Amino acid sequence: xxxxxxxxxxxxxxxxxxxxxxxxxxxxxxxxxxxxxxxxxxxxxxxxxxxxxxxxxxxxxxxxxxxxxxxxxxxxxxxxxxxxxxxxxxxxxxxxxxxxxxxxxxxxxxxxxxxxxxxxxxxxxxxxxxxxxxxxxxxxxxxxxxxxxxxxxxxxxxxxxxxxxxxxxxxxxxxxxxxxxxxxxxxxxxxxxxxxxxxxxxxxxxxxxxxxxxxxxxxxxxxxxxxxxxxxxxxxxxxxxxxxxxxxxxxxxxxxxxxxxxxxxxxxxxxxxxxxxxxxxxxxxxxxxxxxxxxxxxxxxxxxxxxxxxxxxxxxxxxxxxxxxxxxxxxxxxxxxxxxxxxxxxx
Length: 347
Ligand SMILES: C[S@@+](CC[C@H](N)C(=O)[O-])C[C@H]1O[C@@H](n2cnc3c(N)ncnc32)[C@H](O)[C@@H]1O
Known about the structure:
The protein folds into two domains: 7-108, Winged helix-like DNA-binding domain superfamily/Winged helix DNA-binding domain (Arc Repressor Mutant, subunit A), CATH 1.10.10.10; 124-343, Rossmann fold (3-Layer(aba) Sandwich), CATH 3.40.50.150. The strands form two sheets. A seven-stranded mixed β-sheet has the order 5-4-3-6-7-9-8, sandwiched between helices. Strands 1-2 form a two-stranded antiparallel ribbon. Helix 11 packs across helix 12 (187-195). The protein is an alpha/beta fold and 347 residues long. The protein has 16 helices and nine strands. Residues 141, 145, 148-149, 152, 156, 182-185, 187-188, 205-206, 209, 232-234, 249-251, 280 line the site of S-adenosylmethionine.
């Protein structure tokens, strides 16, 4: 008698998607990198065209151009009608070098490649990052962050407006004096300044990064609402009882636990009675098993920093409580993690 065939086993009785995601996720970045290298987006910004026309203008093969342009179309970066390719708004904004939000250079930058190739070695040794002197730390930051903050300025403009509204900016809280620490582009405080025309911001970062902050302020018509405090956030002297709101946007993860706790203590002194602290971070669940973005970001911190990591909302709440802010609320703002707002400090 023939043995019954188990069709379910042949067809696999589990979902392949998690594995396919792991091995396939490199393709999109390599496709965009090739198109940036070949000048595809710049060419299409000048003229929409067929594969033959684009290939002719770039001096490359028609066969290769066609398959590349079709892939970019399937990836929803280009549109195609009657054989003619054109930039969709997303590619026009992010992949044409003249755009203020250009991110095409990310495909070559250390942000994507970083030290991921050395992950196994890092796990073997317990990490790769070495301690550096403060002067060297500042030099590296001033080289690395201008590109990263351009990326964050694109990714977080929508969430920043949601955060500003959640903070009651321009409504329950008008004319706030804001301390934006490790401000980068200033994306979070710029959003508050948009929502509340009376808000004023003191922006703190390394001097070489503040030059960029200043340009973002000018670009968004907010230059006169900003003043600048250059220096290391751990050392810069902060005025006492001056601010209504301190913003910590994606900085505590790289500081790690010890320095973050110290910093929260210093911020408490810089806030007025009833001042608040807003934290934008990658927040994993308590077990650190999800959501995916925060958890994978934890690996990035492991690879690139000595003490950085991801911390749950409960851990931040504990540190905030210790700094004198017992009330911590969270607000969904349309990104991987909610905004945390701490209050209840000395009245
Ligand atoms: C990941 S970016 C975040 C920028 C911005 N807060 C945001 O959310 O888009 C980190 C920023 O912190 C700044 N930074 C890092 N360490 C710093 C330090 N010790 N003192 C001052 N700024 C620092 C970097 O220059 C960079 O602008």
